[in-house]
Amino acid sequence: VGCRPFYFWCLSSLLLLGNNSIKTSKYNFFTFLPLNLFEQFQRIANAYFLFLLILQLIPQISSLAWFTTVVPLVLVLAVSGVKDAIDDFVRSWHCSALPSDGVNSRQVCLSVSVQADLLLLSSSEPHSLTYIETAELDGETNLKVKQALTVTAELGEDLQKLTEFNGEVKCEAPNNKLDKFTGTLTLRGEKYALDNEKMLLRGCTIRNTEWCFGLVIYAGPDTKLMQNSGKTTFKRTSIDRLMNVLVMVIFAFLGLMCLILAIGNGIWEFDKGYYFQVYLPWAEGVNSASYSGFLMFWSYVIILNTVVPISLYVSVEIIRLGNSFYIDWDRKMYYPLNDTPAQARTTTLNEELGQIKYIFSDKTGTLTQNIMCFNKCSINGKSYGMVGVGIKVDFSYNQLADPKFAFYDHRLVEAVKLNDVPTHRFFRLLSLCHTVMPEEKKEGNLVYQAQSPDEGALVTAARNFGFVFRARTPETITVVEMGETKVYELLSILDFNNVRKRMSVIVRSPEGDLTLYCKGADTILYELLHSSCDSLKEETTEHLNEFAGEALRTLVVAYKNLDEDYFQDWIRRHHEASTALEGREDKLSELYEEIEKDLMLLGATAIEDKLQDGVPQTIETLAKANIKIWVLTGDKQETAMNIGYSCNLLNDDMEDVFIIEGRTSDDVLNELRNARKKMKPDSFLDSDESNIQFEKSSKKTKIIPDEEANGVYGLVITGHSLAYALEGNLELELVRTACMCKVVICCRVTPLQKAQVVELVKKYKKAVTLAIGDGANDVSMIKTAHIGVGISGQEGMQAVLSSDFSFAQFRYLQRLLLVHGRWSYIRMCKFLKYFFYKNFAFTLVHFWYGFFSGFSAQTVYDEWFITLYNLVYTSLPVLGMSLFDQDVDDRWSMLFPQLYVPGQQNLYFNKMVFVKCMLQGIYSSLILFFIPYGAMYNTMRSDGKAIADYQSFALMAQTCLLIVVSVQIGLDTSYWTVVNQFFIWGSLSVYFAITFTMYSDGMYLIFTASFPFVGTARNTLSQPNVWLAIFLSITLCVLPVVGFRFMKAQLKPTPSDKVLLKIKEAKKRPPPPSPKRRLRRTSTRRSGYAFSHQHGFGALIMSGRNMRPKSPFATTGTFSPNSEKYKHKGL
Amino acid sequence: MKNKTSFPPQEGEARPSRCPDNSAFKQQKLPAWKPQLTIATVLSSFFLTGAFCLLVGVCLILSANSVREIQIDYSDKCSECSKLRENSSNWNKECHCSINFALKEGILGDVFMYYGLQNFYQNHRRYVISRSDAQLLGRNANIQKSYCAPFTTYRNGTPMAPCGAIANSMFNDTIDLFYNLNSSVIQVPLLKTGNSWWTDKNVKFRNPESYNLSSAFAGTARPPYWQKPVYLLDEEDERNNGYINDDFIIWMRVSAFATFRNLYRRVKRIRQFADGLPAGNYTFRISYNFPVTKFKGRKHVILSTVVWSGGSNPFLGIAYVVTGTAATLAGFVITAIHLKLRKKKTYFQK
To answer: What span is annotated as the signal peptide, if there is one (chain B) (predicted)?
Structure first.
């Protein structure tokens, strides 16, 4: 196949195209330092530290050496700076790794995705037709056809003419309406109207068209797709927001503590300090107790600053980064078929993956593979097609067979070979009754251009069984029937539309028989059958039920032999009707009804809209995890519902599936209210708890509480109704009703509506949302949802590019959420709990000491200890825990999706938990201060020397603290890997090593001013009562925690505690087999007629406008299943 | 899956697979120890800790009780002297006072003599930093850069040696102990060296080097509250003079709290005192120099023996006993609750 490049030619020079690319890197080599520093100091924590640093430079206030602040600050800035630099580098690298956004693309033939909104000028196809697929834009999989203006079509591929093309296009300003375009083209003084039929929008894929030329109308951000993709907002997790609130609370707490201490200092200086001036005169410039108190306020701000831990943000970033890497590295989310690993494209949202409550999923390409498969059929009361895998039917007798087609029932081939008449008629019908266009560039290499993939699948099936649709002209259809080329005369196409739900063709066979072939939805066609088919009807119904039970899309096929005279009369009236000026449509459909009756039933086809692997199982698992799934699709209702049933979203165990399809605002409101009334009759009473709660919630942010329906319900809403429902007053009604349902399916929605739906849930529900999709039409919702997931490895990259996480298969979602999300969430919560605890325990000791040291801002610990505590002594163990911890391993968390629920309810870290951490921290700090105090008070060392000197006390308190927090992290760690062991023991050893080094003679003699604690470690840590005090502090800090945790799990077990207990018991038994059940479906018949919601190509074919000169091979191809000649040729 | 054709290698060159490594680390399958809170571990930790704490507590209380300690508050008893000292113009007047006490039983073993101060905020931040370690190390340091102010230099620029509030406020009472045996008064021999940390004496404090001490401190002046310059702190013992004077070193090791005691002297175990202090009447003779009344401070003199766990402070012992009791009780409570719950569970299972 010759492959010619596509040229999209841009009149308005390269300026427009220049905008088509996006600048992604933020820094360059020189601007990095100033820009990054500026950005970093905009973060509140860093600014706060800068402020502290300035405070420390004021001598009257400075209560700590400068390095206690500078060292952490520099380290934090360095770490974040490096991370930003890497991020920036990776981002620009990602972009350059994408296929270039260029205008011509030579690599892919016959499928090129359009990168700007173009006005179609000319194409290789007759009448400048261009076939496009818009799955990326609206999720519809059928081919659409666009046609250029005749004046521009003349340009052809003559580059000379094209470059000389001189016209003026006037069009509307860039907007987000995908289905509308108005404009005019002025060419040589004449005006031509432009509409959407002449536009190729960015995001659509050109199919089966050799070349085409277009004029760029909108580029870059002006394209309709980009206009639809919503704003890119900086996403933050709820933990982020909570953390900011908590930091503010801590600031207030810090202020309060400092105020208390400052007042204490004022009183102390007045009461005692004033008299103590004999030995300690007031500092220069201080002349009153209150002024001293004022200064002391700031001094204490410096000392107690560690309650607002600067390393918090950095550590959180590191943890998220680490957990993102695990996603990238997971082999179980790697898809070998197209070599696509999962990818965490945003590294700051991990823990939110463990809190998802709503999933918004696209259908096409996400739930389904977008592949249609002719799976089963029923011919003359006989059902063919087997479940499970057998041996593939060998179609090698047929030279024109499609090698990709697979069928597993050999009986059908036998029937064909035995010249069974109904079977032959069945496949003849499939090869004649359609609007597919064939293409044969090389002999035997047939390519079908089908308007819908279903139709393509049916024609391909007929082709493989020996009824090869080979060529068509407006008047004829050439079919190679069992090796024999037959040319049927095409007399009429009774095209498909949404009301008829069927299509028919009337053909005259070479033998001269007039036949009408019809295929359509069973409900419709069954009404039109001849009464003689009643028994066959019953058998076929049974088969249809069976097919529907497997969620296959079914079509019923029937035929009718026509009487020559009647037909001549009919065709005359048809001609009249089609040329009538008034009521043409009605007249035609009347005529169609007239001829399509008393049909003879032939059988039924069953087509599988192939789901992606493991979709039903994934959905079942996610449902068990209490996650609600909403399907938002641009496809039409039947298809959407069909998929809903086949992937087990909807099933017949549901009490009801409400369908909202009102065409006015009032209808929609009524339908929604009725649905709600049925689900929860009380919900209209004022006494209903939800109503009360809802009224209570503040005016600004109305949060609707979760409501329980009296059963399992589903809701299907169409795009039209959705448009009304999304308007102001109906919004609430929609959310309340929809959120009570287990499953919501929105069909025929625009990309923007998808985003609006997500926005709606975000607004009224305190829940974390996730949107997953693969196409450009999903970009807006991916950007809107808290977390956006893109399905990668397919053609379009739009969704992936705007997503936060991407992987190749929908089924990986359960692993992403239940394993990675859950772990990340638990790790983050554990980290925060521990982090706040350790800083409270650390800092509050200073507070208590204030009461014993004249509120003089004297620190308890050595300044070096203060500097290194967060950065060196305690950072690695907690990082180790937050990177490696697992309460249960991945198998169990997949097996018990209930374990996911605490995350949704935000149980592991919230304000309550924070208060508990704070109280625990306060308790620990009390122990850590008063035990050493009591142990040292009025006593002496075992050699009679004084023990209660400040340095010994400092060393004792800090050693107690460090061991206590290390034991505490050991208690929190439930998964001790080598790394954890190394970090925890290592940190303790490093503490002692550093302490002994810093307190050594050598260090003192070199840096006298910096290390005044010389000898303290040796002299103090050799005392038995010091160690006894340390042991007592540890016991008092840790043992209550052990008892409390154990008793809590015993007395008030949470549901997840119970599951964990179950797992613990189950672990004693051999591990369970990996869960692989086949889902049973109940069988209610649902017919899907998977055509476009638009008119078919019928008219186009009859007019012959899309015909190319006859295929050169159409008449030569002959083969016979019994012919030896072809068997050899095939080898 | 297998019958699907794999992704065709594009552009003719074999791309390396993007499949992640199958390492235990990357797949989060590192072997790990997974400790869990089971009834066995919880109960054993409670009972073992309880038993251990009780044992240690009892030992601590017993040994603390075996400590003999005599503490005498002399800030009131020497009220005349303290009144005299309230007026700083009397700084050069000497004032002595005596305090008698009787030992019904002798104090056996090593006896240590402490002075105790109450309400003296040695841990005040500005007090703690008011020193120059470099100066005390005998270096020619620029004390202006230290936090010694306002005890850095005199108005005429003469630097103080040692500088700072700590040194200036050094405890300068002298306390002597006399044993009254049959109307004869015997001075109890006391050791004034070997009372400080080895590291302080040998590393942290050094005299400036010179051919003799007074020349080493030439050009400096004593701190304002001192009665004599630093090189005259102990005229008898060269190795206890200047900065390396034990009393000075001990004072410079500031206390963590406002109430504290510092080791002052040890009883030299010779002659009558070879076994400690025999029973009888004793007198402390105190040269009262250190004013405390102004800030409501109090002064004590303490005689004490020590054991392995230190002095007579019963705090640790009591704390251990309480903790041990609490842990054991909690252990029993947990056992009871656990048994009850288990009964309930089996009951329901039936």
So the answer is: none
Give the model's pLDDT for residue A9. 37
Q: What is the pLDDT of residue A388?
A: 59
Mean pLDDT of B33-57: 92
Q: B125 and chain A: CB distance < 8 Å anywhere? A: yes
Cα–Cα dist A481/B186, whole Å: 138
Q: Answer whether the bond into residue B162 is a cis peptide, omega within 30°.
A: yes
Supply the ipTM of this predicted assembly.
0.93
The per-residue pLDDT for A255 is 94
- From the candidates A222, A362, A522, A609, give the one annotated as an active-site residue: A362
B220, B83, B78, B194: which is closest to B141 by C-alpha? B220
DSSP state of B29: -
pLDDT band at B52 (very low <50, low <70, confident <90, very high): very high
Q: Which residues pair with B286 in a beta bridge?
A: B97, B175
User: Is residue A347 marked as binding?
Assistant: no
Task: Read off the pLDDT of each residue in A838-853 and give the average, rounded to a whole number.
Answer: 93
Give catalytic status of residue A513 as yes or no.
Answer: no
Instruction: Tell me A335's DSSP state.
Output: B
Minimal C-alpha gap between A1001 and chain B (Å): 7
B236 backbone dihedrals φ, ψ, rounded to 5°: -80, -35
Point out which residues pair with A361 in neighbouring strands.
A631, A772
Q: Quick one: average pLDDT of A872-891?
A: 91
Q: How far is CA A766 from CA A742, A989, A998, A1055, A1122, in A?
A: 17, 46, 52, 21, 69
Do the Cβ atoms of B306 and A1051 come within 8 Å? no
Q: Do the Cβ atoms of B22 and A1004 come within 8 Å?
A: no
pLDDT, tens only, B239-272: 898 899 999 999 999 999 999 999 999 999 988 8
Phi and psi torsions of A1032, nearest 5°: -65, -40
**Alpha carbon of A58 to those of A61, A67, A299: distances in Å?**
6, 14, 10
A754 is in an annotated binding site: yes
Put simply, the answer to whether A1051 touches B169 (Cβ < 8 Å) is no
What tokens does B59 get? 């030992």
- Residue B104 touches chain A, beta carbons under 8 Å: no
Buried b (16+ CB within 10 A) or exposed e, A452-473: bbbbbbbbbbbbbbbbbbbbbb
User: Where do the H-state alpha helices sit in A304-363?
Assistant: 311-329
Chain B closest CA to A386's CA: distance in Å?
17
- The mean per-residue pLDDT over the stretch B307-316 comes to 88
* Selected residue of A331, A938, A947 to mutate for chain B interface (largest B Cβ count, 10 A): A938
Structure tokens at A678: 């049925």
Cβ separation B337–A339 shorter than 8 A: no
| Contact criterion met (CB < 8 Å) for A337 and B4 | yes
Q: Find the range with the poorest average confidence among A289-298, A437-446, A505-514.
A: A437-446
Q: What is the mean pLDDT of residues B170-175?
A: 90
Please indicate whether, in this complex, the C-beta atoms of A276 and B49 are within 8 angstroms of each other.
no
Give the best residue of A391, A939, A1030 to mutate against chain B (max B CB count within 10 A).
A939
Task: Give the residue-averaged pLDDT of A1027-1054.
Answer: 91
CB A655 within 8 Å of CB A637: no
Minimum distance, in Å, between the CA of residue A853 and any CA atom of chain B: 5
Please name the member of B26, B128, B199 whose beta carbon is closest to the beta carbon of A950: B128
Closest in A938, A952, A1014 to B203, CB measured: A1014
Per-residue DSSP letters for A499-556? TT-EEEEEEE-TT--EEEEEEE-HHHHHHTB-GGGHHHHHHHHHHHHHHHHTT-EEEE
Encode pLDDT of A911-936 as tens digits.
Answer: 999 999 999 999 999 999 999 999 98
**pLDDT score for A8:** 39
Which of B126, B250, B306 is nearest residue A280 as measured by Cβ atoms? B126
Supply the DSSP symbol for A949: B
